[in-house]
Amino acid sequence: MLKRAAWRAAEVFTTPAPPQEFARLFNPLVSSRQLRGVVTAVRHETANSATIEFTPGGTWDAHKAGQYARIGVEIDGVRNWRSYSLVTAEGHDPAITVTAVGRVSSHLVHHTEPGDVLFLAPPQGDFLLPTGPRPLLMLTAGSGLTPVMSMLRTLLPQRRDADVVVIHSSRNSDETLFLDELTQMNDAHHSLTLVHRFTEHEGRLDLATTHDLDTLCPDWRSRKTYVCGPQEMLDDAERLWHSEDLPHELSVERFAPTLFADPDARGGVVTFEKSDKEANAEGNTTLLEVGEDAGVLLPSGCRMGICRTCLTPLVSGTVRNLSSGELCSDEGELIQTCISAAVGPVHLDA
What we know:
alpha/beta, Rossmann fold, 350 residues, 6-stranded mixed beta sheet, globular, 2 iron, 2 sulfur cluster binding, 17 strands, MRET, 6-stranded antiparallel beta sheet, Elongation Factor Tu (Ef-tu), domain 3, single chain
């Protein structure tokens, strides 16, 4: 209450601008409109990845282990948003570990420095640890390890009765995130069993059958299981747990939406009216990708059909939702460009 009263008193001297705009001159975390964070450290994990630690502004909600947050960064004067898992333990300042794949992630890995300002959205997600003690199995691959690291960093120091098996796949040891820390965790905590699978020599973990799991973790059916990694791995896990009548024991975290490709889908010419640009679009390519390839600056966030940052008015034509298969041709309808594709000629107010 005292803080609100102080802001109201300050308005006498700053009107017509809000006092927060003047406060930003001294503290970049202060904003009346946008949650921000200041980068405090950048640590390279591999040749192509980095952990970025940041201190968020006062309205940040403390994250739970396994959650993610939307992170905004300005590139060439344009604010871009992506979603990243938070890798620190609960109760600690947040951090993200980013692999340089794509324009935004590559920018974060190669150009972020301490003192830089990130734009933030509150933590979210339900890929969370169980509320009570349970034996756990974590199946991860590549950057899918990031939400699980937050879980391990939270759980292992607090619960001596924890029983966790982690099976992590990566191409080789040089490309494995957190390799040294995971090894130290495995040595320090008898409650953790760590299995590294280097696919360059051992091949991918096969979840099409139970053979690999029966070999690596014989009691996997009795464990609550968390899976995060490539789309094919997640799809195989869901089918396997369903076939074993255990879907309630599986939690899946996806970094990309489940899109249904139609080999017979027809695309069309997409016209971006405000930008005065046209592009030929295939029937299974999202309008967001079409626009970006054509040099159109479209709003985007999660790129998974969740956050709705990409909503863009449809001027004319028909689009197909690649997640649901539904068609939309209502003039003025706000469509999600990250999960929508053209069905014939399409005009967008962008």
